[in-house]
Specification:
The protein is built from 22 helices and 30 strands. It is an alpha/beta fold. Belongs to the class-I aminoacyl-tRNA synthetase family.
Length: 710
């Protein structure tokens, strides 16, 4: 109670009377009060006590009694509870001494189990809370806006309360967070957690979130990264309260740097980068140079009188990880994309981060765990300048196995031709996942299932894919496609012209509509759905073994197998019978008729090992671990005509094959239609249809997890 009071009243002078009252000083609790409180609690649970006897949780009685009498002695309360329970139940019997039998919980049905799944440490565990439920203030135990001083480790100065009062006047007590990416690369799956945490926490608590580009390194920044970052934030379903840049505040940051020097907290140093690297280095020989001298030298830095690496501005502090006097400014003769040639000195992350948070009145500065070592410097710098000091909170990073997310390594993959670009669907950048067909909702669900953890989470990709299947099962309409076509001619087709077959968009819920598919004498099935020689477990089409054609109401039986000179099967001639007039077939197969010729890209993992960056697992380096079968392009695929007007990123479930998404490349192609009577896969039988786009499909995920994986 004393500590709680002091945290809530950090400034002196201390109101002794109020302090003692909050601590219970002088409060006297009589035995009669204890007896009455325990009697009320026992009476409240009387029926349960009589039913469970001594197997009842007595701690519950203790807790309720203590909540009624906060200042009573715990031992006295326990003695009174024991006495009253003994009076009610009498002495323990042999039955009371027997061990309580274990109760087995009923196992949930598969659908329930899947719905309740939550990922923890790479495994599926207990029921998941929604992201907003996890991020509400009462769940995370974060400080309330304006109560920064109640946070463990927060430094209170004589100006703290006045600054917090000004802060509340600006924000009105609203939660403010920010997502501060560096615009020097494309966001990846780990950033999805950061986006969800920062934007989600603000949303869950009625606040706002800034998108702030940390554009303090002009050498590596490109306009395409700024655009892509915002696109991905909005794709995940979030709208920034404001889009800002660290460069917006360069003038203010420079003014504060001068003030830091004047106060004796910073100095100009001439040590080389190699000399100040590592932990616990020797103090700089220029650490104690006069403030006036550092002011003149810092001005010379700004005017370009020092070359790159010849001078830096360093702050006088030792960080939690032992790093001494971190750099605040360095010289870089690189034009900035927004400020041009105005500056040749640029602030570092250590200097910029907390001060930009202060300028924007951020209430909760949410960072990944590796920034914990910077928390003390975060507080120190704000307090050294007497400006509003937000609170930094850390959470665990999200990593995936079988991939790399380092910008440098992805650039190497692009340069070597292992992948086409940052959005290659085999990568786990957000642009790549979108291109592959992963819905934003599925990525957000995955982040929610990983949870708001302090520990780093390293997950298997199939857990993300499971979230994708859950969403696409509800959102992706069904279509039929054949990847390796085999021509089938129905010799007794029941109509003089093609029939229209109605196919439900979602077979489990036909109220969501149907689409028409032409059914004519020439159809195409998968080559693997026919065998001349069958084994015991084979149930699909074979001589003497009919199959049903999905959605048609017909069963087909083989009459003739047509082969080329080399013995390859080129065509089947079959007869069809109405389903109600034929024996029930062992299987139903999908098919296409008058189809679209499309390109389909099938993806597997890019790397063979779980940790391609680990020298112990992959001694030759990550480039030696590439999976040669990570991409297979099928250019003989045929898809039913219901998808002809599909736009880029449209998603479908191809029956029996998996979930597929239309690739943006589709807009540059021309559709081709398999001619009636033609023999696919021969390219000569395909004729161009102007000016429709040819569709290119990426396989997003298979229908079920491959049991051979992991």
């Amino acid at each position: 109670a004393a500590l709680d009071y002091l945290k809530s009243h950090p400034l002196e002078p201390l109101d002794t009377a109020a302090f003692e009252q909050a601590c219970g000083v002088g409060v006297s609790v009589s035995p009669e009060q204890i007896e009455e409180a325990v009697e009320a609690v026992v009476s409240r649970h009387r029926a349960e006590l009589l039913a469970e006897r001594y197997r009842f949780n007595m701690g519950l009685l203790m807790g309720e009694a203590r909540s009624r009498l906060r200042w009573a002695d715990g031992k006295t309360i326990k003695n009174e509870v024991d006495l009253q329970v003994l009076h009610l139940l009498g002495p323990k019997t042999e039955a009371d001494l027997e061990k309580k039998p274990k109760t087995t919980k009923a196992r949930p049905a598969p659908a329930e189990k899947q719905k309740a799944a939550v990922v923890e440490n790479g495994e599926v565990g207990t029921e998941a809370l929604s992201l907003l439920e996890q991020l509400r203030g009462e769940a995370l135990k974060f400080h309330k806006p304006g109560e920064n001083y109640k946070t463990e480790g927060y430094v209170v100065t004589p100006n703290t309360m006045a600054l917090l009062k000004q802060h509340l006047a600006v924000t009105g007590g609203q939660v403010r967070t920010r997502f501060p990416p560096e615009p020097n690369g494309i966001l990846h799956i780990g950033h999805a957690k950061a986006i969800n945490f920062n934007f989600g926490y603000a949303k869950a608590n009625g606040g706002v979130c800034f998108l702030r580009y940390d554009d303090t390194n002009p050498e590596k920044e490109e306009e395409k990264y700024f655009t892509a970052i915002r696109d991905m934030v909005e794709w995940l379903g979030y709208q920034p309260y404001a889009v800002t840049h660290a460069s917006d505040y360069f003038d203010q940051l420079y003014t504060w740097a001068l003030e830091l020097i004047r106060r004796g907290h910073a100095y100009v140093c001439h040590q080389k980068v190699e000399e100040i690297k590592g932990h616990n280095p020797a103090p700089s020989p220029w650490r104690d140079r006069p403030a006036e001298e550092s002011l003149l030298l810092f001005e010379d830095m700004r005017k370009g009188k020092f070359g790159e690496g010849e001078a830096t501005l360093r702050m006088k502090l030792v960080m939690e990880d032992g790093k001494m006097d971190p750099v605040a400014y360095r010289v870089k003769f690189t034009p900035h994309h927004r400020t041009g040639d105005k500056w040749c000195i640029y602030p570092t992350y250590d200097y910029t981060h907390c001060l930009c948070d202060s300028i924007e009145h951020i209430t909760h500065s949410l960072c990944t765990k590796e920034f914990q070592a910077r928390r003390s410097s975060y507080f120190w710098l704000c307090n050294a300048l007497d400006v509003y000091c937000p609170v930094q909170w850390e959470y665990g990073r999200l990593n995936l196995l079988y991939t790399v997310v380092s910008k440098r390594k992805i650039i190497r993959l692009v340069e070597t031709g292992a992948v086409r670009d940052w959005d290659d669907p085999r990568l786990f950048t957000l642009t790549a996942l979108r291109r592959r067909g992963f819905p934003a909702e599925a990525i957000n669900n995955f982040c929610a299932r990983v949870g708001v953890t302090v520990a780093q989470a390293t997950m298997e990709p199939h857990l993300l894919e499971a979230c994708v299947r859950e969403v696409l099962n509800e959102k992706a309409p069904r279509a039929m496609a054949v990847l390796e076509p085999l021509k089938v001619t129905i010799t007794n087709f029941p109509a003089p012209e093609a029939l229209d077959v109605l196919v439900p968009n979602f077979p489990a819920d036909e109220s969501r509509g149907f689409h028409k598919v032409p059914f004519e004498p020439t159809i195409y099935i998968e080559e693997t759905d026919f065998r001349e020689d069958v084994d015991k477990g084979y149930k699909r089409l074979a001589p003497g073994q009919p199959v049903g054609l999905r959605h048609t109401g017909y069963v087909i039986a083989v009459q003739n197998v047509i082969k080329d000179a080399g013995g390859r099967i080129m065509e089947l001639e079959v007869t069809c019978t109405k389903s109600d007039a034929a024996d029930k077939p062992k299987a139903f197969i999908h098919w296409v008729s008058e189809p679209l010729a499309c390109e389909v890209r099938l993806y597997e993992r890019l790397f063979l090992h779980k940790n391609p960056e680990d020298p112990a697992e992959v001694p030759g380096g990550f480039l030696s671990d590439l999976n040669p079968d990570s991409l297979r392009v099928v250019d003989t695929a045929l898809v039913d005509r219901s998808v002809v007007s599909a736009q880029p990123f449209s998603k479908f479930q191809f029956e029996r094959l998996g979930y597929f998404s239309v690739d943006p490349d589709s807009s540059a192609r021309k559709v081709r239609l398999a001619e009636r009577g033609g023999s696919v896969p021969s390219r000569r039988v395909l004729r161009a249809l102007p000016p429709s786009p040819q569709l290119v499909f990426n396989r997003t995920v298979t229908l079920k997890e491959d049991p051979g994986k992991d």
